[in-house]
Amino acid sequence: MSDARRNLAALVYDEHQDPDALLLDFARDLSARGLRAVGMVQTGQCADSSLSAVLLHNHEKLLLAQDFDPAATGCRLDRDRLQAAAARVSDALAAGADLLIVNRFGKREREGGGLVSVIERAVKAGIPVVIAVSSERVTDWVEFAGAAGARLACERPPLEAWWRTVTPRTARPGN
Known about the structure:
Blueprint: H1 3-6, E1 8-13, H2 19-32, E2 37-43, E3 52-55, E4 61-63, H3 79-94, E5 99-102, H4 107-110, H5 116-124, E6 129-134, H6 138-145, E7 150-153, H7 156-166
Parallel strand pairs: 1-6, 1-7, 2-5, 5-6
Antiparallel strand pairs: 2-3, 3-4
């Protein structure tokens, strides 16, 4: 398996699981260890106007939902707001990171948009990337990441185990 793809992991979740809380908690723990996680974690719901994300590097909350439209159906993600958030994450990545966390691998990423350019930049730079991927989108994920991209259960132990395999020993405090 190539090192670049080993650094790319999907945290695969089912409908009843909360990858956001898990990723946010993991990012906080890394920060407490003196490591820098950048990226964003989703808050709110896709199907209503509460869809937003928290930037991990500064804890700022960004609205990602479209302005309320009662006629809208499905996900109310505003593409322009998503691209603005991607630019903010890209800037944070350029300032240095030990890990990139992406809130979702969704339709935009499948189409080559969303945070794909940020993901690709991190992978090329050797920065590990973990992305929440719905079990319904695993096929899209495999198409994007290839067979070598890691797939993790949406639980803390597999996430920690993956992290230990992609983090240089010298970057882990206490080692």
